[in-house]
Amino acid sequence: MGEKPLVKSPFPPFLAFILDNPLRRVLIDRERFLRGMGVKEGDHVLEIGCGPGFFTETLSMIVGENGRVYAQDVEEAMVERVRRKSAGFRFSNVVPLLSNSSLIALAPGSCNVALCANVIEEIYKEGELEGTVAELDRVLRKPAVVIVKEHRFGGTGPMVRKAEKLMLNLGYEKVLEEVTFFSYHMRFRK
Predict the structure, then answer these.
(1) What is the model's pTM?
(2) Do residues 66 and 98 lie in contact, with contact meaning Cβ atoms separated by under 8 Å?
(3) What number of CA atoms fall less than 13 Å from residue 78's CA on the CB side?
(4) Which among 95, 155, 165, 179 is least buried, having the fewest CB atoms inside 10 angstroms?
């Protein structure tokens, strides 16, 4: 793979406590959400923009010892935080990846699930949306599932719809869409 400088995330690492805090853990039932979106034991999941690992531990627990979680982020501080945190997980199935979301050091077909949780807006602002969707398609083996969870604040609707259009253009089928007061939830398959 070619070398490309890391993009600058619009979300600064020093605010990681906002993403991974006790109140958010109470408000969002991560296990229920992920299982409801189809994540199961043995899956190999690419977590795009893992940040400080809000979903990482739950993914690790669900996929179990026969699964794998590739936790990708563009911020070295976030990846290092996930690396330290995952050392205490029940399973040693988390692989932290420092890379752009549009150029991930994984072989084609390495994963069967991709999770994009509250990162579409950032990826869009980084100018990486088209490349990221193409990269997801490259690293996912069929049958593949892409899960999108995006907040509804700050005008993210058009960005989510653009990501949806890109997925559909690559042959993915939208099999679920839920819009809550706070967020969009979508699941695509191919």
Answers:
(1) 0.92
(2) no
(3) 30
(4) 155
* Residues 106, 118: Cα–Cα separation, whole Å: 22
Q: Are 23 and 53 within 8 A, CB to CB?
A: no
Number of domains, the chain: 1
Q: What angle do CA 72, 67, 104 make, to 5 degrees?
A: 25
Residue 140 forms beta bridges with which residues? 111
Domain assignment of residue 176, given as a range: 13-189
Q: Which two tokens stand for residue 123?
A: 């990826």
Supply the CATH number for residue 166's domain. Answer: 3.40.50.150
Question: Per-residue confidence of the chain (190 residues) as pLDDT tens digits?
Answer: 456 777 877 677 767 766 777 777 878 899 999 999 999 999 999 999 999 999 999 999 999 999 999 999 999 999 999 999 999 999 999 999 999 999 999 999 999 999 999 999 999 988 999 999 999 999 999 999 999 999 888 788 999 999 999 999 999 999 999 998 889 999 999 9
- The first and second tokens of residue 110, run together, are 């390495």
Is residue 3 a part of any domain in this protein? Answer: no
166 falls within a domain: yes
